Amino acid sequence: MTTLSLESSAEEVAEFRHETVLRDEVVAALAATPVGWAVDCTLGGGGHTEAILAQCPQLSVLGLDRDPAALAAARARLQPFGDRFVGLHAPFADLRTICSQRNSGELSAIIADLGVSSYQLDTPERGFSFRFEGPLDMRMDPSTGPTLAELLEAVTLENLADVLYEYGDIRHSIGTARIVLQAFREGASTTGELARHLARRLPRERSMHPATQVFQALRIWVNRELEQLDTLLRDGPMLLAPGGVMAVISFHSGEDRLVKQAFTALAPRKYGAFIRPRRKGLIPEDKEQEGNPRSRSARLRVVARAGRQEPESEGNGE
Question: Which tens digits make up the pLDDT trace of 80-91?
Fold first, then answer.
């Protein structure tokens, strides 16, 4: 786990842009939590944390992010809240270790927004988007781990096909993996070049660019996002104090499936240690989707730790 402070330029802090998705719904989910700490596992530009600090006076927030630019921007934005906010450079899979090292009172809430920030997508040198000529990087934490190019150097066709199928819902994954590897081995060294190879050889589905799902899968692979999420879903709920809430926003069917399955397994009955306030996830209202098209695939799911153990009903189960 890394907890060092990484410096970012003033320009990076000023330019960090991200539209906060489902902000009001997250705040509403946390409104009745007990006094204590919330952990924002994906701090980003600090939008969710700012709203929580402003509207949930019983909570302080520990913000985690793998991206040093995001952390610097959030620290600047949240400075008015003083010691109610603490930021750490760390992946959220380290949550259990972080909590064991801190002595800050009850953990009352955990939130995670699993989307990529607008800043990351719109910064060419980060290599997340095929709209720009950027390096084949895609790392959320550019200070550690292999880049996309380094992974492509070593991957087999079969393993890459598995990545595209599992993380991108790509049906013809062997053929698509072959295109990616052929393009890379023939000298495609930027996101734009790789996207153009895909556009020439893959059919366009509706208005979606042929590279969209491929780039999504590659990003998830580079950052081991589903492995990180598995760990968070296993550890997070068990760290909550009675009455605590965990809220997760997903943007990809594979992510949402993991969240739904984990929360359903925690709260299989009406009475128990965990409760799902609503069985279906929340999606952004039409107004939010119109103002922020990237929010259209977002879904919020919530699970709460019961304030006390309720006895199981002995009636007819109605």
Answer: 999 999 999 999
How far the first Cα of the chain sits from its last, in Å, is 47
Other CB atoms within 10 Å distance of the CB of residue 14:
10
Task: Return the ∠ at Cα 70 (arms to 65 and 71), rounded to 5°.
Answer: 60
pLDDT band at 295 (very low <50, low <70, confident <90, very high): confident
3-class DSSP state of 22: coil
User: Is residue 303 predicted with pLDDT exceeding 90?
Assistant: yes
The residue-averaged pLDDT of 169-197 equals 96
Query: Facing residues of 249 across strands?
Result: 113, 300
What is the rounded CA–CA span in Å between residue 130 and residue 65? 24
- Res 271: pLDDT: 56
Instruction: For the domain covering 10-113+225-305, report its CATH number.
Output: 3.40.50.150
Gap between the Cα atoms of 182 and 292, Å rounded: 36
Report how far apart, in Å, the C-alpha atoms of 238 and of each of 101, 129, 245, 263 are: 16, 36, 11, 12
Compute the distance between CA of residue 189 and CA of residue 224 in angstroms, rounded to an integer: 22
Least confident segment among 106-110, 186-190, 203-207, 275-279: 203-207
**Alpha helices by DSSP H, the chain:** 10-15, 23-30, 47-55, 68-77, 95-101, 118-122, 148-154, 157-168, 173-185, 191-201, 212-223, 225-239, 253-266, 286-291
Q: What was the pLDDT predicted at 56? A: 98
Q: What is the CATH number of domain 130-223?
A: 1.10.150.170
Taking 50 as the threshold, does the pLDDT of residue 128 lie above it? yes
Q: Is the pTM of this model over 0.85?
A: yes
Measured distance CA(249)–CA(27) in Å, rounded: 13
Domain boundaries, the chain: 10-113+225-305, 130-223
